[in-house]
Design brief:
Blueprint: H1 13-29, E1 35-37, H2 48-58, E2 65-68, E3 89-91
Parallel strand pairs: 1-2
Antiparallel strand pairs: 2-3
Length: 99
């Protein structure tokens, strides 16, 4: 487990599949929940992270996608560590240019 983006290991298909199974189980348990995205610009740190996000989002069809109230200058949903204590949750649309 890495808490610093610079410590992210290389892509591991086995871990990715395990994560997807856990996410599927959570989504099955909370059938009507919205999805809150909070990854910030970290997505650009490692090329494999976009594939991971795409696979996760493919499980979330027909869910409302939300983010914190100040999208980054690159169009990414901000990470909570970069936000003030007075944050709001807003609707978020993923665009091709922020993939």
């Amino acid at each position: 487990m890495a808490t610093n983006p610079n410590d992210l290991a290389s892509f591991d298909e086995k871990i990715h599949k395990s994560n997807l199974e856990k996410i599927k189980a959570i989504l099955a348990e909370y059938k009507n929940s919205d999805i809150l995205l909070c990854y910030g610009v970290i997505l650009k740190k490692r090329k494999y992270l976009q594939k991971c996000l795409d696979d996760i989002l493919s499980l979330c069809n027909r869910r409302n996608i939300k983010c914190l109230d100040a999208i980054t200058k690159d169009g990414y949903p901000p990470h909570p560590s970069r936000k003030s204590k007075t944050i709001k949750i807003i609707d978020f649309k993923i665009k091709n240019d922020n993939k």
